[in-house]
Amino acid sequence: MDSVDRRDFMKTVAATAAASALDGNAAEADRARPIFLSTWAHGKPANERAAEVFKSSGSLLDAVEKGINVPENDPNVTSVGYGGLPNAEGVVELDAAIMDGTRHRTGSVCALRMIKNPISVARLVLERTSHTTLAGDGAFQFALKLGFEAQTLLTPQSLQKWLDWKANPQHKTYWLSAENHDTIGMVATDGNGHLVSGCSTSGAAFKIPGRVGDSPLVGCGVYADDNVGGASATGDGDLMTNYCTSVSIVHFMRRGASPQEACMELLKHMVETDGKNKDTQVGLIAMNKHGEIGAACMNEGFFLKYALWKDGQSQLLDSARLY
Ligand code: ASP
Question: Least CB-packed of 3, 111, 177, 246 within 10 Å?
Answer without folding.
Answer: 177
